[in-house]
Amino acid sequence: MESATGSSPSPELPAALHRLRSTLARLKAELELVQADGKGAPAERLLGDLNEALVLLQAVEQAAFGVVPILVLDDDARLGDLTARGLRRLGYDANSAGAARELRPGELVVFDLGLEAGLSEGARSALKAARPIVVTGATDPGSRALAAGLDASDYLVKPVELDDLVAAIRRRIAEG
Hints:
The protein has 2 domains: 13-65; 69-175, 3-Layer(aba) Sandwich (Rossmann fold). The protein has 6 helices and 5 strands. It has helices at 13-37, 43-65, 77-89, 121-130, 141-149, 162-175; strands spanning 69-73, 93-97, 108-112, 133-136, 154-157. Helix 1 (13-37) packs antiparallel against helix 2 (43-65).
């Protein structure tokens, strides 16, 4: 079975499904205790279990359908949201943010070079390891050097057509 992103199913699916089922069963048991006792379980614990279940669901989606998580980091929140929404319509698990955050496993990053100056050393290292697709309005050699310093897998000049971004994403996925 091929997905919209061109990947095939993975043998990790049964293990990921088992972990997801276990986490959801634990959450259900905690909620049943709350219902029976009339006392509320700590919201932090329930939210932690729910967040864990969502992370495991993402692993199942990646294993079963080859869904690639994508983080669009753009200093223009509206543009970042529009880009992520366009990618979701094409079958990608895309989210946007206006600042760097901890990356999810296997997450591909579309990075607006305008955010580079505000990166902490840790965020810069994580971004470099992710080999981002850089998008920017700048065409000068200094901007290209900044992108090269981040080990960018691609350099796209704004305005970027969604088809061109998807082509860059596919090239990045093919790199592994």
